[in-house]
């Protein structure tokens, strides 16, 4: 049962959704995503597993994971009330267990729900609480995600100065983490907002930074092609896309500071 439960946790965390026509409350499933019937079956199984845990006095650590995953499943189903209810239980249990990771995820995901309900000031408060925990944990990838989320809210309220500052904070972390995807997105966002503010020189500066990064990414791909053709030079391997930095229904499974950028260097062994 434990193996099946862990597999289910992973599956629910990967459920795919997208926003429709820029309507903050309108979400739909992508074609490759699971149907609502499948999701409902998973919710039913999670609830059954939760009851089994409680009856057999399983660890609270396992129970708090179930509540977080239930929150994510209900989020994907569009049942924000039930999602919030489960995230709040996850948060309370995380506080009792002094589990910072569970607290971080719960605050962040509640923030997402509040944003979708257009309760932007409350969403910012939750993001700020999650950010404080990330700093305590030295979870720089989590900090980067939250800086982006907070910048998005300030951009929505047309407070471009604050939005730019949070994107700059994200940009600095992206440099430290060698996160090419984050670098590109931050530069693009900052440049566009400076353009909106009619600060054309600053916009040009960040657009140029964006172009430099895109050229660097292209060079990485060219180096990889050379390496595959038999070059003995140091090359790069594309490790596949990272999780998008945009906010999502489930932040669960994000493992502290272990995440890597889209490209990672490797040293070719001499034959």
TrEMBL record:
Keywords assigned by UniProt, alphabetized: Cytoplasm, Repeat, TPR repeat
Supply the InterPro entries for this chain: GPSM (IPR052386), TPR-like_helical_dom_sf (IPR011990), TPR_rpt (IPR019734)
Q: Which GO terms describe its molecular function?
A: G-protein alpha-subunit binding; GDP-dissociation inhibitor activity
Biological process (GO) annotations held by this record are: establishment of mitotic spindle orientation
Q: Name one Pfam family in it.
A: TPR_12
Protein name, entry field: Tetratricopeptide repeat protein
Keyword hit for Repeat: yes
Q: Where is the composition biased (Basic residues)?
A: 259-271
Q: What is its main location?
A: cytoplasm
The domain of life is Eukaryota
Organism equals: Clytia hemisphaerica
The UniProt entry's GO CC annotations, sorted and at most eight, read:
cell cortex
Question: Biased composition, Acidic residues: where in the chain?
Answer: 225-249
